[in-house]
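INTERNAL AUDIT FORM
Audit reference: QA-55
Scope: verify that the stored structure record matches its stored sequence.
Auditor: D.O.
Record contents follow.
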Amino acid sequence: HMIILKSKTLSLIIVSIYYLITFTVSYLIVQLLEIQYLWIYIIIWHLTSTLFIYLFSVIHKNSSIYDPFWSVAPVPIVIFLSVHSPNNLLINLLIIIPIILWSLRLTLNWICSWNGLLHEDFRYIDLKDTTTFKAFINNLFGIHIIPTLIVNISLYPIQYILLNPVVYFNVLIFASIFTSMSVYLEYVADKQMKIFRSNIQNHGKTMQKGLWKYSRHPNYLGEILFWIGIYLFGVSSGVAPIAILVCPLIMLALFIFISCPLMDNRSLKKRTDYKNYMKKTSQLFLWPPKDTIG
């Protein structure tokens, strides 16, 4: 049993099987419910899948099994919606391709960084390091259900363009380029960080070159911009209510108030030069560094 868990390849195969079972079985369950409104259908499919992944993560005592869910789940959702689309294939591809690129980048990042079923994200270990009941609540809601709902809400604008004929074609083209460039920004930030980390002399030092000179979290900035792009796709339908602006704003709030401070606090503990870097460098948006002395 331990041999299987220690093998990264086998771990990835097991998790892939879990995901296939999860999406298929959840889809079949939702089919039985005969729901008329498509997005309610998707929410139930999304949440049922989350509960399956939660069960697998409890069996293995490893919540990192949920990690790729964030980036994998939107793909079957948009493909499912595009089947119902009144738009032609080219328009659907302009919407789906950037989403697939985004999904591939995040999922491949996870595959590279995850060491198998014995490896669990430090944030999850911290969240579960409490009383049994609190650990259960943090695991089920904090690690699984709430992130699913955040992705679901942020993805919500996409249904307007996938289920209605495009009205503002120029907005659609812009949204397609904008989302693709956001993913490219994330990719460049990752690559710069990877090169920096691969140099042994940089161990214990803070990355302050390239994009990281102008933002402490350029990868997160790309992620936020991607979800703003999803909102713009919704706008291109011409029928999306103004209220859907809330969708990317929820994602923005998640990064500004939760993800960035979490990573900053971790870096402050790990690296002595981070405090000075924090003083002079913008949290998210690319901005020239402030001149600080000392």
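Auditor finding: record pair retrieved intact. The radius of gyration is 20 Å.
Action required: none
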